[in-house]
Amino acid sequence: MVFIVVGTQWGDEGKGKIIDLLTDRADMIVRYQGGNNAGHTVVVDGEEIILHLIPSGILHSEKHCVIGSGVVINPEALQSEIEFLEKKGISVDGRFYISQNAHIITPYHIQLDVIKEEFLGKESIGTTKRGVGLAYTDKMARIGIRVVDLLEDKDELREKLSHSLFEKNCLLKNAYGQEEGFDPGRIEKDLLAYTDLIDKYVADTSVIINQAIDAGKTVLFEGAQGTLLDIDYGTYPYVTSSNPIAGGACVGAGVGPTKIDSVLGVTKAYTTRVGNGPFPTEMCQYHSEEVRIKGREYGATTGRPRRCGWLDIVAVRYAVRLNGLKALIITKLDVLNDLDKILVCTGYQYKGELITEFPQSQKILKECKPVYEELPGWQEEISHLKAYAQLPSKAKAYLERIKELLQIEIAIVSVGTERNQSIILDERLLP
Ligand code: GDP
Ligand code: IMO
Ligand code: MG
Questions:
Q1: For this structure, is 40 an active site residue?
Q2: Is residue 243 a contact partner of residue 231, using CB atoms and an 8 Å limit?
Q3: Looking at the domain 2-94+204-429, which fold is it?
Q4: What would the pLDDT profile of 126-171 be if each residue is shown by its tens digit?
Q5: Those residues with Cβ within 8 angstroms of residue 129's Cβ, 6 or more apart along the chain or in another chain
Q6: Ligand 2 centre and the CA of 34: distance in Å?
Q7: Ligand 2 pocket, 271 CB below 6 A?
Q8: Which CATH number fits domain 103-200: 3.40.1030.10, 1.10.10.10, 1.10.300.10, 3.40.50.1820?
Q9: What is the reported pTM?
Q10: Which tens digits make up the pLDDT trace of 317-329?
């Protein structure tokens, strides 16, 4: 069975927790896009572990984990993550592979990300400053450095770096007024320090994944970021530079679309967003603060407070369509426990018209006013509940309304950070 798990909002939906939970049923977990801009949290026996690059399935000692060619890899971040896991007694050896085609995030990508964001000031994207967008820019401009480049001819690597840095140094000097440019020799030395690490894990990952699929293994694709951060379909330019949507999994892993059995969408029971950009259902400061505190809504990568909003059905309906979702996994329902009323956005009002499909024009989106339906809160603790039938009737009514509005089934409801705080509604929708 081959399942893709994607975020249906602006990221941080709880994908890490869900992937870790589903890993019990899987043999292999694959990251197919993004880089260490992701922050996927897994809580095991009260201990919080945040993974940025290595798939969240890695905590299960027998499972194989893969970083596909669509991911951008910062070797330093990779090394720290492997060491971090080793300190916890988790070895990745013999079960972790990185694609030879994946692009490398170099120190100059990170520096440029920082400089660019500062230069843009109020107009900045609010990136994670991990150099992710800049590495993808070079990939598309065909001047990127790939994993394989660190292992092959050193003269060629030096030449590629000089080529890639020429334009950047002009930009640094002329646009950002910086006299000192990047030194190819220095960067080369920095990168070559990771040759042994890369050499240990590099593989033709498309072969490995396809062999696993053909052998009847269960493979999970772990989306990073979320549908509304997709470079093509998200709230451009306030997006990330890859394709988190399900279509991105085939490209980023080297697997054909006919091999995919199902796509599951992870949806937070409300909405959050880190960074700048339009957010139609953003809550007033009072509610936002309340949800932020209860939901511990601070970025898992940058620690920034996340902007909080009500559940946006228009946005999730868009995610259902773009990803071809078979079912939803609703997370953080428990965060709404204390609220006396809960708002759900069922449409947008734009110049006197009702819009129910997510607008493609950012100008229109910015002017959309959410149309809310008000549902009563259940005002009861639910984190300890183990079955759907035990949920308060008002919580069930909230979930039923989501299903009805989106015309989609719910496979799991998550009511806490731990693996066992997960209520399975329909086994048939899961691997
Ligand atoms: P990801 O990027 O989609 O993996 O999500 P993050 O890890 O960035 O953010 C999700 C946060 O919510 C993490 O702190 C999780 O531990 C936490 N979380 C996940 N599911 C639940 C849940 O059902 N209830 C609560 N209260 N917290 C959850
Ligand atoms: P996970 O996988 C939430 C956001 C940044 C910024 C925009 C571009 O944990 O859900 P980038 O550094 O990618 O160039 O920043 O995308 N962003 C995320 N927001 N969760 C993430 O990942 C994110 N990764 C990037 O905040 O708005
Ligand atoms: Mg996250």
A1: yes
A2: yes
A3: Adenylosuccinate Synthetase; Chain A, domain 3 (3.90.170)
A4: 999 999 999 999 999 999 999 999 999 999 999 999 999 999 999 9
A5: 110, 113, 114, 117, 302
A6: 9
A7: no
A8: 1.10.300.10
A9: 0.98
A10: 999 999 999 999 9
